[in-house]
Every structure is written in structure tokens, then in C-alpha cells.
Amino acid sequence: MASGDYTAACELLAPQSREQLEEDEKKKCAPALQGQDLPHGGAVRGSDVYGRQARLRLEDDTLFLSQFNGGWKVVAAGCTWQSGKPYSCSVRGE
């Protein structure tokens, strides 16, 4: 979130992720996202695509994406790897 444009970032979220964030934080998406203190991301380190699902590994973050009719959307962000467990993500759809 280096640009600080949380409204634009909300447009990149998958519908379920956006709804879950707003429900969890009891705020509209942009202020709720700003409160997450997400990493700036950094340079792309790699990506894996599995059909309509993808993982994007950045220097300081990992994002999970899904392909929708309108293009790729972020389903989880602020994700950190945990040995032997699923990623722990700050923003995610349930």
C-alpha cells in the first residue's frame, strides 16, 4: 500500500474479501483497509497460477488472487507463511 490509495485498493479486492473486511472492522472498505497496516509489498519475487487461482509472492507480502469475469481480484493480502500451517492473512474472504 505504498500509494496510500485505499479506495483504488478496495476495487482490487474480491467481493467476499471486501465484505469480510467491512464486516470484521465495522467500517467501509477504504478506512478498514487503512487500519490493517498492510506491508508495502515490494518487488515481485515469483508467482504460481493454478487455473483461476494464483499466488503472488512479493518482497514483503504474499497475495492470493482469483480470476473473476472482470479480471483478477485479490482474495487475500497481508499473508505470512507459517511452517506446517496455512498462510495467515490480514485481509481474506471467508
Written account of the structure:
With 94 residues, the protein is of the alpha+beta class. The protein has one domain. The protein is 24% helix and 43% strand. The chain has three helices and five strands, in the order αααβββββ. Strands 1-2-3-4-5 form a five-stranded antiparallel beta sheet. Strand 1 (44-50) and strand 2 form a beta hairpin. The longest helix has 11 residues, at 15-25. The mean pLDDT is 92.
Helix and strand arrangement:
Elements lengths: L5 H6 L3 H11 L3 H6 L9 E7 L2 E6 L3 E7 L2 E12 L2 E8 L2
From the alpha carbons, calculate the radius of gyration and give it in angstroms: 13 Å
**What's the number of domains?**
1
Amino- and carboxy-terminal Cα gap: 22 Å
Please state how the strands of the largest beta sheet are arranged side by side.
Answer: 1-2-3-4-5
Number of strands: 5
Helix content: 10-25%
Give the topology string: H per helix, E per strand: HHHEEEEE
- The fraction of residues in strands falls at 35-45%
User: Structural class of the secondary structure composition?
Assistant: alpha+beta
Low-confidence stretches: none
Our count of helices gives 3
Q: What does the oligomeric state look like here?
A: single chain
Tell me about the largest β-sheet: 5 strands, antiparallel
Which structural traits does this protein have?
single chain, 94 residues, alpha+beta, 5-stranded antiparallel beta sheet, 5 strands, 24% helix, 43% strand
